[in-house]
Amino acid sequence: MDRRLLPLSALRAFEAAARLGSFKAAANELGVTPTAISHQIRGLEAASGVALFERQVRRVTLTDAGVQLYPVLRDGFDAFQVALERLTQPRRRPQVVISATNAFTVKWLVPRMSDFRARHPGIDLQLQASDEVVDLRSRGVDVAIRYGRGPYPGLVTQPLFTDHFAPVANPRLGVRSIEDLARVPLICFDWKRVQPENPTWERWFATAGVQDLSPAGQLRFSDEGHAIQAAVAGQGIALLSQALIAEELAAGHLVRPFGPVIDGHTYHVAVSADRAPSTSAQAAIDWLRGQAQGKSG
């Protein structure tokens, strides 16, 4: 049959009747009378030369010819609907989900979000803070920040920067020398993974060559962010990431009274090896790397 002569109204009537199993139900859906549906389908049967329905008292069933025709029309009309909805619905803004630890999210990412918005106003950035390792293949995360030495199986990673740790305190405590540790509590936090390279007070004391010094107690937190808050509040002296407390150091809320400074781990930006990052995700990765330049503390 010539495409220009296709009886579109009759085909639409047939699809609805076949899907609903009733001329009356098809008529209700299409806003016409059952008689109109019956006439359109009879006209289609006459034009094709085959019977499409077996008429029964209260319902209709498809003939073999009708069974062959129905899925073609159903899929076609579904495709029309999807395409039209895509055209008429407002386009969704691209979104990039970045997963990072709680402390890194709050202290490093959040203060920089305004810069990302200024550079990429058409991309929405969503931050997912968690100290648990997130599986990029199953959690809808586009980019993750990993902290450690690696390797990271199943991920493609690029280094952002290596962190550095040093003793810091609220200037009101008057800490000026290592000897002052004998009168000020040490603020500590728990590392999620115990490794000999972790920048702990034990490692710092060994690097500084400090022996026979007993600090005035210890405050221990399960979260690095809480340790930062305790140091700002003047609760003691903390061995903290210089990258995560850059704002507090610049504002004078914390001071670094003495060294040495020891290396921490390296922050990496990671994506799943199973799929290439989208254009928006790659823009976020490039932005992260740009922000990391000279931001290692």
UniProtKB/TrEMBL annotation:
Domain of life: Bacteria
Location of the HTH lysR-type domain: 6-63
Keyword Transport: no
GO MF: DNA-binding transcription factor activity; sequence-specific DNA binding
Keywords, in A-Z order: DNA-binding, Transcription, Transcription regulation
Family statement: Belongs to the LysR transcriptional regulatory family.
UniProt-listed PANTHER family: HTH-TYPE TRANSCRIPTIONAL REGULATOR (PTHR30537), HTH-TYPE TRANSCRIPTIONAL REGULATOR TRPI (PTHR30537:SF74)
Protein name: LysR family transcriptional regulator
Source organism: Roseateles chitinivorans
Lineage: Bacteria, Pseudomonadati, Pseudomonadota, Betaproteobacteria, Burkholderiales
